[in-house]
Specification:
single chain; 255 residues; mainly alpha; two-stranded antiparallel sheet; two-stranded antiparallel ribbon; 11% strand; disordered C terminus
Length: 255
Amino acid sequence: MTMQQTQQIWLKEVECPLCYEEFMTENIWQGKIAVVEEYPDLGKKYSGLNPLYYSVWVCPNCLYADLRGDDFTTTGKLNDEDFENDYKILKLVAGKTDFTQARTFPAAITSYKLAILTAKHKKTSVAKIGTFNMRLAWLYRSLKKDKQEAKFIAYALKFYLEAFTTEDEPDFGNMSQGGITYLLGELYRRTGNARQAVNFFQKVVNDKALNSEPKYMKMARLGWESLKDAPQAQEEEDDSQEESPSKEESSDQSE
């Protein structure tokens, strides 16, 4: 299907910063997107078009890919020759995807995989690679593909944790320290590690230095409360001598 401008989609001509190919790309009017639900891992369910389909621009010529806007036009530490040497790998990942056509679910999935390969060449924070994997998990969730969703949640946790523990200035976008601490707890919860989930939820609730926003404190309390009967979580609470947040405290925080 050919790209078309609609009430929700607008078209933009973009120049690739690597090969200087000019191409058209779809963008979505953010003000016309309706969020139906927000999940505990901060993913969203949308009514109508899913903006995640259009977040990554891909050059149809050289397959350079990154988030739309400044991230795409800024090549960072990418070495053109090294990137060109990996073109066969990029082409293999892209398969028969035609990025000159309207964005589909398979094309959206491929765009994030190409963005991950590009990010490694740009030598960006591994937190950004974590974000690409997180969005892949959300995309698979939108079609109820549970196995693929779980796979990319595990990848997101791996890269986020690496950035959180080893990088001086990890690129978590606009997310605060309290927000990423909460998200790590939630990803541990989703991957079945109740002990570590409670550990991170506790940090959000109890560590005043994090300056956690009320939203994340409330979500951390709810996550912590949901794990109160898990054996691993009980061990964590015994070790730290912390009490699980009461329902009354949770109610106070939400006000």
